[in-house]
Amino acid sequence: MYVCICRVVTQSRIRASIDAGASSVDEVTLECGAGGDCGSCRDEIQSMLDEHCGAGCDHCPRAHGGASARAAG
Amino acid sequence: MKGHKQVVDALNATLTAQLTAINQLFLAAKVHEHRGFLRLARAAYKQSIHVMRRAEPVIARVLLLEGLPNLQRIAKVGAAEGPVEQLSLDLTLQQELCARLEELARTALSLADHGTAELAEDQLSKEQVYLHWLEAQQRELAQLGHDLYLAAQIHDAP
Ligand code: FES
Q1: For residue B90, which of A73, B11, B15, B27 sits 20 to 30 Å off, Cα-Cα?
Q2: ipTM greater than cut 0.85
Q3: Domain topology for B5-152
């Protein structure tokens, strides 16, 4: 499905951004454009990030710490 | 006639679900039409227009209760890459609209706003018709498989 209608970005394209290391909505926007217009898809991009980072963040090579760090901070 | 804030809020939440449905189904109808799935196009188009008509008494009720109808807020429009996925996004959308109407009826009843409760229940019974149609499509899909199901969507027999 198209998560971002304004910039015509699909869910799988956003997942690819996240897999490639984007760790915040702004980074996803920079990488593929999603979320850069009206902003109404940003919650959904955030949930995709949370989902990605919720499980097994201990093994995640990225430094952001994922959902648990955001909840704590 | 000053209404309860909770009722006005619940009416506006219903309006948000309606506006989302109007747009999502209008888009879906045009995409189905473009791809040649005329039966799906017609069903989505009709429902979009029906919901627009049903938004009118909701807006009128908000005004009657001295609130401001919120035509600004709209939820995420579900746009699929293919027709089968669109049907499941439309099902989620319709479940949300029915849930808002149920909530509206409950809130209005608890505050003895019988006019609003009656409006909500009347609309709920109409939205359930489309909900059941969408559920039937899921059953047909499961029985026929995607290819046969989609082949049956090309011709529109009104
Ligand atoms: S839907 Fe993504 S910015 Fe508008």
Answers
A1: B11
A2: no
A3: Ferritin (1.20.1260)
